[in-house]
Amino acid sequence: MDECMVSCVLVVLLLVTHHHAAAAASTNSSQVVSEADALRSSGWWMWRYVDTSNHCSWSGITCNEARHVIGINLNSYQGLASELSKLNLSSLPSLDFLILSGTGINDTIFDHQIGTLTNLTHLDLSYNQLTGSILYQIGSLTKLTHLDLSNNYGLIGSIPYQIGCLTKLTYLDLSFNQLNGSIPHQIGSLTKLNHLGLSYNQLTGSIPHQIGSFTKLTYLNISNNQLTSSIPHQIGTLRELRQLDLSLNHLTDSIPSSIGFLTVLTSLNLGRNRINGSIPPEIGYIKDLVYLELDSNSISGGIPSQLKNLEILKRLDLSNNSLSGKVPPFITHNCKCSIDLSNNDHLKAYTPFLCNGGHKIALGVKVSLYFTLVFASFIILGFVFGCLWKKRKVQLESTATKKNGDFFSIWDFDGKLAFEDIVSATKNFDKRYCIVVGGYGNVYRARLPCGKVVAVKKLHGSEIEEPTHLRSFENEVRMLEQIRHRNIVKLHGYW
User: Fold this and answer.
1) Could you report the per-residue pLDDT of 57-115, keeping only the tens digit for each?
2) CA separation (Å) from 473 to 83, 94, 444, 468?
3) I need a surface site. Which of 293, 392, 398, 485 has the fewest CB within 10 A?
4) Residues 6+ apart with CB under 8 A from 470
5) CA within 13 Å, CB half, 253
């Protein structure tokens, strides 16, 4: 009797188990069909696949073993996905990644469906033509690690504070849009971020001090916005940061000294703001810096000597500031770095150098008229005072022109006679006419028969026979031929 009861119970259990298994299989099959229908209805694949029976084999579709769609990757399939709304996202609950970058989508970005993709870890809709706002439903995607909505140019509105719920994010890029409003302080909850791009928007307000929690960040770009106030000192906690760009904003006050803690930084751009104060010497601690751009601010004071520690620097731009004092020798004699100190009217003896094969070529002096003349020592023949036209010299000028040709036309003159005029004007390069003694040549002031004043550099006799110096001379001449600057006298020729 007991054995019969046990048998009956086993039979009932087997029947119930079979019933549940059959129901699960039916549900699973129904879901698979629903997902296939959602893909098919979008029309994104129909142009390519006549046989629509096996959606898991379509380009860009990834399915798991149960044939559920877990990924869509149509990266750079231009024109394939014209409208995001054509894809019923709510029918794809297992979706793990959605990558539609560069597909030409020209739809509004989000509707309520986006909140249903709770398993999504990677969302990339960049380089499209999306419009509309980023809705608060984005906060439902709590498994997201990668979110890229950059380069759509049409996203508007503010960044929803719910973005702070995406605490697993490692990559967030919303740049090149029209987002406005302030940066929500809730963004500080994204402590796992290593990339944050918010550049080229219309963001206002200050940089939230909560950015100090981004201790794993390696890339931060908030340039080309309308941010105000000062750079928070918490910036110094971003010890893993390699690229920092806050340029083209309205940032004020001084650069925080804590920036010196960013010792692995390779690129720092704070240019085109309203920053004042002095250059913090702590920047000299950032020995990995390759690019340092602080141009177009109101920075004052001298150039700190600690910058000489930046031994691998390739670009230094301190132009358009209010710097003063003497330019340190490690800058004026630096042949490894492109340096721009222009439009700092209180800098003394600014002589930027270009280098060729280890030889320094001076290109400019931004000080008094005397130093403008000193520029003549760098291989030039040019105007200094201009032509002094006077009626009583008209005849003399006419005669000189007939004799030697026009010295300042495109060499419409007899070179030998022109040279003789220079020799005569300098009394055979007498030291009384020497205005600069150079490393391998002296510069003389000569008044020509036409009344024009030029500066002439004459190589030392021993230098002419030295091939290295001769090549340097020729390189300098080629460089001077292409330069046009108000503080660099014009090169008219050489022989």
Assistant:
1) 888 899 999 999 999 998 877 666 567 778 888 899 999 999 999 888 887 876 667 77
2) 63, 70, 17, 9
3) 392
4) 463, 464
5) 11
